[in-house]
Amino acid sequence: MGTDCNICSNKCMGFEGNHGGCCTLRDRDFIIGPHDDTKEFLQRLSEKFGREIDYKDIFIHIEEGKKLFPNKSMWSDERSYPSLRVDTMNPFLPCIFYNMKLKACMVYEIRPNTCKNFECTYLQEQTKSDFQNL
Q1: What is the rounded end-to-end Cα distance, in angstroms, of the chain?
Q2: Cα–Cα distance list, 60 to 30, 45, 53, 85, 105 (Å)
Q3: Taking a C-beta distance cutoff of 8 angstroms, is the pair 120, 22 a contact?
Q4: Beta bridge partners of 99
Q5: pTM beyond cutoff 0.85
Q6: What is the rounded CA–CA span in Å between residue 66 and residue 61?
Q7: CA distance 104 to 7
Q8: Are the beta carbons of 31 and 78 closer than 8 angstroms?
Q9: Cβ–Cβ under 8 Å, residues 64 and 82
Q10: Could you say which DSSP state residue 86 is in?
Q11: Per-residue pLDDT tens digits for 76-89
């Protein structure tokens, strides 16, 4: 896992100095979703922050997504939802939990299943070659 974390933080998608590709939209037609463990994630968030966290503060549904990004087809596909909210004030459009300066997820230890299970093609290739070199 240490190698994976180093790749994601410093050479995301195979580009030196790139980070947070799966946690940011940038100019790609990409969405951070769908999420199937919304209730469980909200419970973990509420416990972490010591207060009730509202669903609409964390997740986006198709009606809102289509309005936010009318030119991105993924945001018009109902199979993409619910999606994690992104910071629309930042040009990289990061997930609200991704800290661009620290190059880290602020809820990594309790992140949703979709985030836990996501592996970009580059990471899959690196992991596969690591196992082949054992």
Answers
A1: 15
A2: 14, 16, 14, 6, 19
A3: yes
A4: 104
A5: no
A6: 9
A7: 12
A8: no
A9: no
A10: B
A11: 999 999 999 999 99
Contact 4, 123 (CB under 8 A): yes
* Residue at 111: amino acid letter: R
Query: Is the per-residue pLDDT at 100 higher than 70?
Result: yes
Q: Is it true that the peptide bond before 34 is cis, omega within 30 degrees of 0?
A: yes
- Give yes or no for a contact between 81 and 33, defined as CB atoms under 8 angstroms apart: yes
Summarize the confidence of residues 60-75 as an average pLDDT.
96
Residues 112-127 as b or e (16 or more Cβ within 10 Å = b): bebbeeeeeebbeebe
pLDDT band at 129 (very low <50, low <70, confident <90, very high): low
pLDDT tens-digit map of 7-48: 666 666 666 666 667 888 988 898 999 999 999 999 999 999
Using the structure block, give the residue that is written with the tokens 């209730």. 39
Q: Please report the pLDDT score of residue 56 as a whole number.
A: 96
- Give yes or no for a contact between 4 and 127, defined as CB atoms under 8 angstroms apart: yes
Contact 92, 24 (CB under 8 A): yes
Are the beta carbons of 112 and 37 closer than 8 angstroms?
A: yes
